[in-house]
Amino acid sequence: MTYRFYFTIDCDWVPGSQVGLEMLLDCCDRYGIRGTIFLAGRFAEAYPDLVRTCLQQGHQLGTHGWAHGGLEDDEDFRTAPYEQQRQWIRRATDAVEKAAGVRPVVFRAPNLWISETTLRVLEEEGYHYDSSVPARRFDMGLGRVHYLKYFRAPRDPYRPSRTNLNRSGDSSILEVPPSSCLFPVNLATLRTIGRFTFQRMIQWIGRTSRHLVFYCHPSEFVLPHEQQFPQAMSKWNQRGMGPENLPLVEDLFNHVLSNDYLPMRMTDTATRQLDLRPPIILRAGSFQPDRTYREEG
Ligand SMILES: [Zn+2]
């Protein structure tokens, strides 16, 4: 059994980051990587042509909240009531479907802030996959996961219990946890610890898991003054953003491809392993090829 590499992109509602997404799409194309792209609904609504390009290049489309990233008070799926969560997820789902003609079935919670309420809404809204439970992760005050609630959750794909995301159960949602080794396997960590230490981190995770879920944000490849960040975002967070991060991703691709990792989209692995029905539903009727690309930011 080969190792599985899931390249995932969290596309927040940060006007300006569409440039970073185009760079990532080009990079994936050069390496033959097909990944999963989680889109904030407002981003999908503003850049429908780009969302369609993601699909045409073979990537899987998911949702990532409605306006996450561009608000002072971010969407918090840990605490928001059921109706509010349903509204955010519905609006985002509709926006992606309208842009690309495909109804998304994969979700990632903004900031990986998730709850059992979210699981319930996802089931009801026809989702099949989630990738939000921060198993084995604790940022020690540096990132956004500084609670231990889900630290001991399974690190490999599992069906959670409807009453406790930490445990296996009979949910219709398959959880594919973003990989972590205290710190997350994402671009922020890669930027901070450097490629060689990051490769050792991957090696360490590979001893106990054959699934490697990496994520990055398009905004990390665009210079800060070319984007619009929420006022609440600190200048510290904006440091280190720019096109010079692309070689780090290329280096990661080279590393995983030469170490027996097979690039996969979220749904590729589970359909075979767990006998799920194909989750993508094409709706050609809602495909709108004449929508124009709206410049923002
Ligand atoms: Zn995000």
Task: Summarize it.
The chain has 10 helices and 12 strands.
Structural features, described:
The protein is α/β, with parallel strands linked by helices. It contains ten helices and twelve strands. The chain has helices at residues 18-31, 41-46, 48-56, 82-100, 116-124, 187-193, 195-206, 235-238, 246-257, 266-274; strands spanning 3-11, 36-39, 60-63, 102-103, 106-107, 129-130, 174-175, 180-181, 183-184, 211-216, 261-264, 281-282. The strands form four sheets. Strands 1, 2, 3, 10 and 11 form a five-stranded parallel β-sheet that branches. Bound molecules: zinc ion. Zinc ion binds at residues 10, 12, 64, 68-69, 110. Zinc ion binds next to loops.
Task: Report mean pLDDT, rounded to a whole number.
Answer: 86
Q: Which small-molecule species are bound to the chains here?
A: zinc ion
Number of helices: 10
Largest sheet: 5 strands, parallel
Order of helices and strands: EHEHHEHEEHEEEEHHEHHEHE
| Helix/sheet category | alpha/beta
Question: How are the SSEs placed, and which strands pair?
Answer:
Blueprint: E1 3-11, H1 18-31, E2 36-39, H2 41-46, H3 48-56, E3 60-63, H4 82-100, E4 102-103, E5 106-107, H5 116-124, E6 129-130, E7 174-175, E8 180-181, E9 183-184, H6 187-193, H7 195-206, E10 211-216, H8 235-238, H9 246-257, E11 261-264, H10 266-274, E12 281-282
Parallel strand pairs: 1-2, 1-10, 1-11, 2-3, 5-6, 6-7
Antiparallel strand pairs: 4-12, 8-9
Helix pairs in contact: 1-9, 3-4, 4-5, 6-7
Bound molecules: zinc ion (ZN).
